[in-house]
Each structure stands twice: as structure tokens, then as C-alpha cells.
Amino acid sequence: MAAPAPGGPGAAASAALDELSRNLTYGALGAGNGSLSGAWYRRNQIHLFGVLLAILGNLVISISLNIQKYSHLQLAHQEHPRPYFKSVLWWGGIILMAVGETGNFAAYGFAPITLIAPLGCMSVTGSAIISVMFLKENLRASDLLGMTLAFAGTYLLVNFAPNITQDISARTVQYYFVGWQFMTYGILEILIFCILLYFHKRKGIKHIAILLTLVALLASLTVISVKAVSGMITFSVTDKMQLTYPIFYIMFIIMIASCVFQVKLLNQATKLYSTATVVPVNHTFFTISAIIAGTIFYQEFLGAAFLTIFIYLFGCFLSFLGVVLVTRNREKEHLPQSYIDFGHVPGKQMLDKIQPDSNGLSYGTLPDGSDSTKSPSGEKKEV
Length: 383
What we know:
Number of helices: 13
Strand order of the largest sheet: 1-2
Strand content: under 5%
Order of helices and strands: HEHHHHHHEHHHHHHEEEE
Helix content: 55-70%
Shape: globular
Radius of gyration: 26 Å
């Protein structure tokens, strides 16, 4: 068989395959695999560094969210509250959030997507712990159970995630980008996204499953591009410059665009539904989408044993269940009374309740929705 002509497309493909074979190493299944032994630790030092970055990043994000919430509470208790963006404490929370997101971004350069993405549960459980200490919120039995399940799931995720070491270079990303696996996945994702977007925009269906599925589909592109950009930056620092390749900027644009539209759709979901509902559903959908993206694009489960995959998925299930328990009914404990019932005021007798109208200038509305009262003669008078 003749060798591919130098400089031709066959030579480029052959070079990409050679680089993949050098940069892609799958851990052999042995006594050390699936247990935190010395051999496992030596094989996965680079992964554990990525895990440490992700966990620290998520904990810093938890602290930042609680600091921002605390600053809002402080401003609300002031007689003449300032705008929140003039609060030094609020800006401190924003800076910490940027630091945490930077840690998450860097983690994708050292560990597989299927290992880093599920660790988002640490942000939710960490926020629950910090809110108890910092904001003096109640610690419930369901919180303790949820944290225990989330930590157990995290242990299984770290221990049984794909044992794969992969240096992400520009040629590696190019090879995966034009592969038939990602092409098929991309076409299916675009079709599903367009169908859901049609029902959301044209039919006006705003169900949480549709909104957060749209977010998850965009998130799959986000994690693919984030790992590509972070991996190429890491490869540029440790080996050879990769930032001169066009694929780096293509992935960078995909990362920014998918993040922007993802945040926009997520904001729509939080406006329509409570945070206690959006957080666990979004975490579950995002993690599943990221695992599928990592499996298809970067082939992170290639060569993994069935038992390893099963225990890994069970760890994901435990983390999902832990997040649900931690966030369940949390907002209901802090909701103010939604209406004023004058039927319980001594000396007053009313047949209906007056509902405060947050959209109008009047204090409340009558049951028929009008802002008027009746005079003794029966004529309506505007309030």
C-alpha cells in the first residue's frame, strides 16, 4: 500500500492519528483500578489535580453566592438602601465567583469532562453548609442526608471515572471535530434544539423540561469547547504552542456563544420557576448532557469495563439525589405570607382576601381584578 503523499490530506490525517496514539493513554484494568490505592494514585495524579481545582472552584462559587445574598440582605435592612452594585461586599462576591469559574475552566484542561462536570453538586451542597454558618439558616435532616449522598456519589465518581490521560492539542480537536461520531451527534442535537425552540417560541410552551433541555443542549457544546480551549492552553504551556491554529478560535467562539444563550434561557427558567426546582433539574440535565458530550466527542469511555461504567453512573445518581434533597422545599421556609386575610382581624368581617398587586400602584385588587370600590349607593369609585 502506497504511503500518503507528503502535504496531502492523507498525510494530515495520518499525522493526527499518530498524535492521538501518543497523547491518548487508557489505564489498564487491574488491581489498582477502582480503588484509591497507591497504583491508582500514581496513574491519576493529573486527574486528581483537575478534581481538586473543580472542587475548590465550586466551593469558592458557593461562598460567593452566599456573600452576594448577605449583601442583598444588608441593603434591604437599610433605611435608604443603595443600589447593590455600589456595595463592596457584593463586588467581593462577584470577584470570588470569577475565581471559582476560572478554577472550573482550568480543571477541564487536566481531567475528563465525565469526571469534572458531575462535581457541580459540590457547589450546591457547599452552599447549603455555608448558608447554615454564614446566614444562620436552619440545617434540616434532609440536608444532612443529601450531603451524605452527594459526598458518597462524588467518591464513586472520582474513583470510577474513565481512567484516560489525554493531551488536548489542536490536531486532536480537529480530528474529533470532523469525526463521524460528532457529526452525527451534532446533527441530532441541532434537530432536537430546533424542534424544542419551535414549541417554546412559536407555541409559547414554557415548561421547565423544555427550557432546561435547551440549556443542556447548549451546555454540551459549552463543555466540549471549554475542554478544547482549556486543553490547548495547557498544551501550549507544557509542550508546544497551539494558539496559532484556527480551531482554537473556532472553539473559543463556540464557548462564548453557547454560554451567552445558555445563561439567557436559564434566566427565563428562574423567572418562571423557583430556584429550588430549577437547580436540581438543571444540575441533572447538565451533567447528563456533559457525560454524553464527553463520551461522543472525546471518547472518554472507550475501553472502560461495564462494572466501572455502572458504578460511575450509580455515583451520578447519588449526587443527583443528594442535590434534590438539599434543595427540596428550601425556598418555602423563607417565603413571606402571600396575602393579607382581614377575616382574622377583630371587629372586621370580609368575605374575600385582598391580594397585593406587585404590578400596580394600588395596594391590592378585588377578586374580579379591578382596582375600584363601591359606594353605599352602588356606584363604583376608583381607588
